[in-house]
Amino acid sequence: MCGITGWIDWNEDLTKQADTIEKMTETLELRGPDASGTWLSRHCAFGHRRLSVIDPANGAQPMVRPVKSAEEQDCVVVYNGELYNAGELRDELVRLGYRFRTTCDTEVLLLSYVEWGPACVDKFNGIFAFAIWRTDEETLFMARDRLGVKPLFYRHSEGRLLFGSEPKAILAHPEVPAEVDAEGLAELFVIGPARTPGHGVWRGMLELKPGHCLTYDRNGLRTTAYWKLESHPHEDDADATAKRVGELLSDTLERQLVSDVPLCTLLSGGLDSSALTALAVRYYERTGQGRVHTFSVDYVDNDKHFTAHDFQPNPDAPWIERMSRHLATEHHGVQFDTPELADSLEAAVRAKDLPGMADIDASLYLFCREIKKHSTVAISGEAADEIFGGYPWFHRQDALAAETFPWSLAASLRTGLLSPEMRQLLRPEEYLGDRYAQAVAEVPHLAGEDEQKRRMRRMSYLNITRFMPTLLDRKDRMSMAVGLEVRVPYCDHRLVEYVWNIPWEIKMAGDREKGILRRSLEGVLPHDVLYRKKSPYPKTHNPNYLSTVRSRLLERLDDPSSPLLPLIDADKIREIAATTDASSHLPWFGQLMSGPQLFAYLLQMEYWLRQYKVKIVG
């Protein structure tokens, strides 16, 4: 994994802009701590930071190879990601006459473009964001993986295109102001910490959407979708479906276990991570690779303060121990305490360039930092709930019937946090309604579906295209901030395409959430683990955390110079702070973010406004 950035400009000689492209590149140092490189021509400049995973001795970027149709000219690539079918593609390209200089997938990706042009993306199985410059045509081609595991942002103005793995690379350009307009504020206060696909929040900045590619030349900029979810009748019965799900998951995981650096799995003791760990153990045993290393996260004294509820029915710790002993993994438990968690809220903002999921982000950042001391690659169970329908809101009638995103049911609460001026400017209810209507209009319904099936397909679509990107963005940014690559097998597009069309009654095999996934894993996991009720990513239940973030926020609100004050109703927030205790449930966002996370999010917002010197423009 890496960090990429670049600058295309028809009006400037970029060979004279080495200092600027170096500065843009160095903002991504944490994503790629192992090596740095730049490439400059008159109208194109690329920068790259490398995290070496495959063929560490070679594969330096930017990488240059000749154009097939004009060998005196070149193709140049900067690439962030992994191709899990690189071996098959390499074999095909060798048969076509290509000769390879490295064993890294960067060269496979670049020569695939040389051979097939933009259609190369249809052949890729992996996670990626890349940019390729053709010197003969003076054309930039960029693409992002189908599910959006790897990020890619860009900013286009007259005659100029800037891009980067993270906004910070673009913001490092001297002519890009740190500005946010009303729509960006609406994303933060109404949609956030989720984000509308394609929206970069920063004024003038966009995100290349998942499954999209971009072409930029002297004729202008064009984006096109090369992949999207498509609805088809599902022909397999429940047994055949379970078998196929198991085959796809096993094949996907084995492809993603390939690494030339230390690899581990994240283990929570739940269905999703336990399945991947069990399959990894089987693969390691078969290939003679020794014991699998596993990692889990928890918080000091969490067992003393844990209270069961629908979203988190039981603690993870006993189940982690159960699975680690059962699989004989080399397990590493990581714990954090309240001060460290609260202090890391700012690091999480710097990693994301925006406020995020508060301590949910901060704890992941700390967790990844500990994992990095042992491993460079980690396997995560992220996205199984969105794809297989595991979240409680898939099974609650109020959420299914709500004409809004199921993680945004507290819209009126959020609106009440804004100052009167901001409410008038942002029109939060209208903004949320428009974004929801936009999402629903995209759903590819299947002809002949009854209302219940249409509703479940809609819920699945919202989760895959709106909620899952929030968690994938979080996973990428917090892990790459410490130079850790996290792979997400449940995001393999073949698996997603297949499961998307499984009828709900089969997905719920055995009348259980994710029932078809459970059936596919019969014989892989112990029965009690296989049918354990879902428990989400752990958060701290220590009341000291609530006290810490609440008191810190109130201190900020008492500072008349705080840039947050004009945006919020400070009196309303003080009122909420005065009435919120450890037993309060404030369903502010999703299933994990309640009162403490609201205060922490506002703390992150205040820090972001100060740290980035954000200017709010009309």
UniProtKB/TrEMBL annotation:
PROSITE patterns xref list: GATASE_TYPE_2 (PS51278)
Instruction: List the molecular function annotations (GO) for this entry.
Output: asparagine synthase (glutamine-hydrolyzing) activity; ATP binding
Key words of the record = Amino-acid biosynthesis, Asparagine biosynthesis, ATP-binding, Glutamine amidotransferase, Ligase, Nucleotide-binding
Keyword set includes Cell division: no
Instruction: List site positions: Important for beta-aspartyl-AMP intermediate formation.
Output: 382
Q: What positions does the entry give for ATP binding?
A: 266, 297, 380-381
Q: In which pathway does it act?
A: Amino-acid biosynthesis; L-asparagine biosynthesis; L-asparagine from L-aspartate (L-Gln route): step 1/1
Which EC number(s) are documented for this chain?
6.3.5.4
Q: Which Pfam families does the record associate with it? A: Asn_synthase, GATase_7
Q: Which domain of life is it from?
A: Bacteria
- Reaction catalysed by this chain? L-aspartate + L-glutamine + ATP + H2O = L-asparagine + L-glutamate + AMP + diphosphate + H(+)
Q: Where is the Glutamine amidotransferase type-2 domain?
A: 2-219
Keyword Hydrolase listed:
no
Q: Please tell me one Gene Ontology term that the record gives under cellular component.
A: cytosol
Biological-process GO terms, alphabetical: asparagine biosynthetic process
TM stretches of this protein: none
Q: Which residues bind L-glutamine?
A: 105
What CDD domains does this protein map onto?
Answer: Asn_synthase_B_C, AsnB
Catalytic residues of the enzyme: 2 (for gatase activity)
Q: Entry's PANTHER family? A: ASPARAGINE SYNTHETASE, ASPARAGINE SYNTHETASE (GLUTAMINE-HYDROLYZING)
Q: Which family does it belong to?
A: Belongs to the asparagine synthetase family.
From the Swiss-Prot or TrEMBL record, give the protein name.
Answer: asparagine synthase (glutamine-hydrolyzing)
Q: Which organism is it from?
A: Cohnella candidum
The gene it comes from is asnB
